[in-house]
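[recover] target loaded
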C-alpha cells in the first residue's frame, strides 16, 4: 500500500495561529488515534487528510504523489472515510447505502455485480445490520446508522481507513466489535487513523497517537510514549488518575 503522509502540513482553522507543522506517515498495520479537546481540529485534520479540505500550507501525499494531483476515483480506492455526522441526501436503504462503497471500483454507468452485492451483504453481516438491509437509513437509530457507515467503508475496501469518532452512538458491545474489526483490518496490512474522544479506548486499541492542542500545537509518536499522565493532563486541562487493567492503563478524571 502507498502510505498516507502529512508533509509539513498545517491545517486551516479560521482565526487560529498556524501552530505545529505535522510530519507523520500512516503505515500499513498501524492504528493511529487522534486525541484532543473540542475545537482542537481533529475533524478538520481528518477531512484534510482525505482531500476534502485544503490545508493552510504543506501537503498530503499517498506514497510519492500529492493528493491534489490524483483523481478522486483513485483516491477513493485507497482512502475510506467514516464521517462523525451524516446527512441523508436522498432516501436509500441500508443495502443501497452499503453498495455505495463499491462505486470507486466501478466504471461510469456500470451496475453493481453479484460479487459487489455479496461484498455488501458480507459487510452488513459483519457489522450486525444485515437484518436491516431493506430499511431506509433515515429510519435507523444513531448506532445502527454508524454501523452502516462503517460497513459501507468495509465494502469499499480501502487500504487506509480515516474515521471520525467511529464509536459514536455505539453501545459497549458494538464499540468493541467495531474496534476489533478495525484491528483486523490493520492486521491484514491496512492502516487505521481515527479521531477519538474516549482516552481509554485509544489507550487500549491504538499503537500510535497524535495529540492536538487547541492552540494548534501537536505531538505524536508511539502510544506508550504519548500515554503519559502529565502530557494528557495538559492536553485536556484535567487532572487524571491512572490504574492498570488487563495490562493496559486506564485513565480516570480526578474530581
Amino acid at each position: 500500500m502507498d502510505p498516507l503522509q502529512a508533509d509539513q502540513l498545517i491545517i486551516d482553522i479560521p482565526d487560529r495561529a498556524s501552530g505545529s507543522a505535522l510530519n507523520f506517515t500512516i503505515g500499513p498495520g498501524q492504528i493511529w488515534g487522534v486525541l484532543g479537546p473540542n475545537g482542537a481540529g481533529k475533524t478538520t485534520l481528518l477531512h484534510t487528510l482525505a482531500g476534502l479540505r485544503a490545508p493552510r500550507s504543506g501537503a498530503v501525499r499517498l506514497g510519492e504523489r500529492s493528493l491534489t494531483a490524483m483523481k478522486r476515483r483513485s483516491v477513493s480506492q485507497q482512502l475510506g472515510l467514516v464521517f462523525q455526522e451524516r446527512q441523508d441526501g436522498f432516501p436509500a436503504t441500508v443495502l443501497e447505502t452499503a453498495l455505495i462503497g463499491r462505486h470507486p471500483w466501478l466504471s461510469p454507468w456500470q451496475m453493481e455485480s453479484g460479487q459487489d452485492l455479496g461484498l455488501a451483504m458480507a459487510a452488513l453481516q459483519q457489522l450486525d445490520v444485515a437484518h436491516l438491509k431493506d430499511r431506509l437509513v433515515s429510519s435507523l437509530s444513531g448506532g445502527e446508522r454508524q454501523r452502516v457507515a462503517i460497513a459501507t467503508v468495509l465494502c469499499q475496501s480501502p487500504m487506509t481507513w480515516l474515521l471520525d469518532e467511529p464509536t459514536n452512538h455505539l453501545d459497549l458491545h458494538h464499540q468493541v466489535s467495531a474496534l476489533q474489526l478495525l484491528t483486523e483490518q490493520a492486521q491484514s496490512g491496512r492502516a487505521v487513523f481515527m479521531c477519538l474522544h474516549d482516552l481509554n479506548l485509544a489507550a487500549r486499541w491504538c499503537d500510535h497517537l497524535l495529540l492536538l492542542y487547541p492552540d494548534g500545537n501537536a505531538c505524536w509518536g508511539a502510544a506508550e510514549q504519548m500515554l503519559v499522565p502529565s502530557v494528557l493532563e495538559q492536553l485536556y486541562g484535567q487532572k487524571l488518575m491512572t490504574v492498570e487493567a488487563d495490562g493496559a492503563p486506564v485513565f480516570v478524571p480526578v474530581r
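[recover] notes: The mean pLDDT is 94.
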